[in-house]
Amino acid sequence: MTPVSKSDSIIIVGAGAFGLSTALHLAQAGYRNITVFDKGAEIPSPFSAANDVNKILREALEAWKTPLFAPHYHQTGFLHCVSEAAPQKAVNTLNSFRASAERHPEVRKHIVPIDSRDDIIGAVRQFQDGSLPGWKGYLNQYDGYAHSSNALKAVHEACIALGVQFILGEAGDIAEILYETPTDHANHQTRKATGIRTRQNTTHNATLVIIAAGASAPNLIPSLGTQIVARSWSIAHIQLSAAEASSLRGIPVTYARDLGFLFEPEPATGLLKLCPMGGGFVNTDPATGVSRPPDALADSGFVPAGDGRRLRRLLAQTLPGLADRPFVGERLCWFADTADSDYIVDYVPDTSRSVVLLSGDSGHGFKMFPIVGSWVRSLLEEGDGNQKVLRWRWKSPAVDLAGNWGDAVSWRVGSSEEFRDIRASRS
Ligand SMILES: Cc1cc2nc3c(=O)[nH]c(=O)nc-3n(C[C@H](O)[C@H](O)[C@H](O)COP(=O)(O)OP(=O)(O)OC[C@H]3O[C@@H](n4cnc5c(N)ncnc54)[C@H](O)[C@@H]3O)c2cc1C
After folding, report:
1. pLDDT by residue (tens digit) across 343-394?
2. Ligand 1 site-directed mutation target among 167, 332, 366, 372, most atoms within 8 Å of CB
3. Where are the alpha helices (DSSP H) in 2-79?
4. Does the domain at residues 78-142+229-337 carry the CATH identifier 3.30.9.10?
5. Engineering a disulfide at 212: which of 163, 172, 261, 358 sits with its beta carbon 3.0 to 4.6 angstroms away?
């Protein structure tokens, strides 16, 4: 039996990728009393990991071609390589992606093998000045990227049209979930959520509370412990002139697994986005072992020196004419990481199915933006209240590596560093 009826009140905390998608799917399914709260004053929220110009898409591509999402999907292709300096781990990951693409009957026809610099120049003429030393991999012409902040805006507008209410900014900053006091808490009688309290001390009642607060989820669900680790990666951009930007129109998402990736410049602004790949940065509270994003956005407004050097190498090898251009819009972007890189889409234990957690994007969740909300709807409407997809269940605290799994994750290169250390080395 579903824990909510179509007229019951549903609160969603977080209007990032997961929260907006959930509001959309539930509203489309006829739930008519949905309120979304976000501490950002507008959509996209400046606190959202999806507040960005581009995100790589490699899954859910059919959903990205539907009318609401298609304007934000750019099928430029995905050039997926390693450079000559790549560690064996990165080469192995690349080879396993390439083998899997070449095995797949539908994907195979879109794959161009890249075994030399000439193969790259043949496919992407804009890289003709690049040294591309030892770059090998493949070009998948079916993949591409999404303009993530524009996609968020479009879904926000669609939700408003469907009657979803939004409370944004200070009035939407949630301090805690409220619960009925259990009569016998000592014997673990389960609690039931009654709503939420904002930092301005206003309460809002609800039958169901859905937490989609990304990397900040542990602030609202302390029992998460270290299942979710707030981790950040760097983002930087370079400013191009209109002519430079148009000369790079249509370049594929270009990813050297040992260096990072870059995208087609945004036509409206001429910004070319760069993102280094690595184990990322955690912000661990020594007392609890829990990593949380820093409160103030300004604290994350820089790119650590090592990442900056990797991005310079990426540019020097691909677009050397831009290699010394100053970076703009530098920042660390926080996401919710799990040890197995899988999402959590489940009821929070001991809440009588009154609280759903939607998190653990692990830095690759935006691609699922068009469909995440359908998973929440299935959880609410199908089955016995147990998440059927085992890997999306509330995770056992036994998987607790205190967040230091950056290097253990098969698809990443490099170890985690503590935010306080990189911050200190900056000043
Ligand atoms: C550098 C970087 C690059 C990435 N690249 C890709 C990529 O190429 N492809 C891809 O698929 N994914 C990518 N991702 C991951 C993608 O951005 C995330 O998977 C996605 O944004 C997760 O959505 P979310 O809704 O869980 O969290 P978010 O989008 O972060 O949204 C969480 C929301 O909760 C709000 N919030 C938090 N706490 C509160 C509170 N107490 N009260 C009210 N509101 C609150 C925030 O304001 C925010 O809007 C990348 C992430 C980073 C950091």
Report:
1. 999 999 999 999 999 999 999 999 999 999 999 999 999 988 999 999 999 9
2. 366
3. 17-28, 61-64
4. yes
5. 358
